Prior knowledge:
This protein folds into 2 domains: 15-60; 66-275, Vaccinia Virus protein VP39 (Rossmann fold, 3-Layer(aba) Sandwich). Helices cover 46% and strands 16% of the residues. It is built from 10 helices and 7 strands. It has helices at 15-31, 37-60, 66-77, 80-84, 101-114, 128-135, 150-160, 176-185, 202-211, 241-255, and strands at 118-122, 142-147, 169-173, 190-195, 215-224, 259-264, 270-275. The radius of gyration is 20 Å and the shape is globular. Bound molecules: S-adenosylmethionine.
Amino acid sequence: MISTTYSFPPRPVTPLGILAEKLEQAVHLIEKTEIPIEISDLIDQAYQLAAGLDPYLEHATTQESAALALLAKKTRQEPWNQRFSDGETIRHLEQEMLSGHIEGQTLKLLVQMMGARRVLEIGLFTGYSALAIAEGLPIDGELIACEVDEYVAKFALNCFAISPHGEKIIVKVAPALVTMSYLAELGEQFDFVFIDADKKEYIEYFNRLLESNLLMPNAVICVDNTLFQGQPYLPAEYQTENGRAIAKFNQVVANDPRVEQVLLPLRDGLTLIRCL
Length: 276
Ligand SMILES: C[S@@+](CC[C@H](N)C(=O)[O-])C[C@H]1O[C@@H](n2cnc3c(N)ncnc32)[C@H](O)[C@@H]1O
């Protein structure tokens, strides 16, 4: 019987993943070349250091819940390219957008340690980070997720239905800046915000949060992909439009006297920001 399941491993999209892939290519090239053993040993050690870190983090971190594991599996099995090359939409979605186990567990622990009750997520995709955060919220906690794409919003809601924590999540399907204006008009406030949508709008999300009374006192803003595959610190010829947008965002935050922040080298970069 022919299997119709569509699943392949995600391509590397973090500085570490890309580094490990390049070192693996170097190791294979070296096998076919006459070079001093000291050099090939050094490259092999560098490859093992880089390639072993992510699997070790997975091993040493609390396992994800069954609901999160299923959500990640369904996301891997979805034929994103087929759906988005049908001419009906120009949106570019891919399985690599999913944040995953280590980042999900980090976000869950952060909200638990803060005692956060009200969370705003900007960029839902299939819902991995939203559900991980919801697992860390109290029973009366609430997460409002902004997502512009109706198909992934429905996909996420179907996944949430199998978790008792899914009930804490409300999805708003609209451009995030529109939803943020609407929430600000209603006087809604949040003690934790996770930014993970359009990289070119990151500065607007950040300023809107600080200037629209959307944040409770002592709120924390968490921003994903702030290392963007290493592009912010690589030479200009390696930077894409999104990489340049993230470099600019990081500079804006670094220059802003209203906040203090730290950029953690977790996955593709996670910046934690606190208002002063
Ligand atoms: C990187 S994915 C989010 C991944 C998700 N947080 C997770 O951990 O799995 C970015 C999502 O933001 C959505 N998005 C992009 N631009 C947006 C916008 N202007 N408003 C709302 N959502 C947007 C995309 O459709 C996509 O689903």
